[in-house]
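User: My instructor asked us to take a sequence, write out its structure as tokens, and then describe one feature of it. I'm not sure where to start. Here is the sequence I was given:
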Amino acid sequence: SHFSFWNYDWPYPSINLSGTVSSANGDSLSGVYLQIELNGMVLGTYVNSGYFEGQVPQNESFLLTLKDQCGNVIYSQTYGPFSQDTQLPPITVTNSTTVNTISGTLLNCDLDPVSNGYALFSSSGNSWFAELDENGYFEITSNFCDGDVEVVGYDFDQLKESEPEVVDPSSSGPIDLGQITVCDEILEYFSYELNGQSNLLVNPFAYYNGPNSPPNELEIYAQSPDSLIVNMTVILTEPGTYNPNWLLISGIDGNTGDYFTGSCQQCTDIEFTVGPLGMQGDFIEGTLIGTFNDPSTGQVVELDAEYRIKRDE
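Assistant: Let's start with the prediction itself. The structure tokens for your sequence are:
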């Protein structure tokens, strides 16, 4: 399955847009940033395994741009308008920097294949990921710019991560990282279920009494390369249970298998618990539990989350 979606939260009729991206050699590309611009709006996501999909306004033309990890434009084309769901013709990137393939296999602490996780790639301040097959194997082809690439494996079931692997993508020929053991505790995470479907965000941020925040406001923010996101604020002064002032969360819904985005203000149907707030650099831990109403299906979406985040402020 693919998870290269973008958030669409404008109040305009929309159609579903999808497409594929490949190199001049025909390899499916990953880690390419796709951006759609129209009428002052900007949508974006990282292409994963050569595939992207998401909503765009109906009957509107738009500019589709692809960028490499350094922000260089490697493809630009105007499309539309479209009145119905559309799959674009295959996109071939010929204006590219270094193209190479990186592969490896993730093993858990028992040296069994990781079945629920991904390999996270970071380079030049950007991050993207590779999905795993049933044997824990991953392989991506991407257009890298100058600089090393860091690869970290994640095991969602055990909340474990690997030691970083650092590689030079300009090396001649494909890079095989071999077996990577995923056995270190994930120190920071926001783990949540939507109707029983697990979603995981790593390296989240937490700000308490930030410079641009109201007094006693805690803000939590995290976003993944596959467009999962959580952003929330809550006013609190001590450990306890509170209702968020604002919450935006997205992920895969276990009932439908589709991408779901829920938001609320003064969220009376959702309870946020938090332990000791500590000081900057200390960890905060707790839960986020409640329900959303999905306007597209009329069904209730159950949220069950736990988090462990280091205070950034």
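For the description part of your assignment, you could build on this observation: The radius of gyration is 20 Å. Try explaining in your own words what that tells you about the chain.
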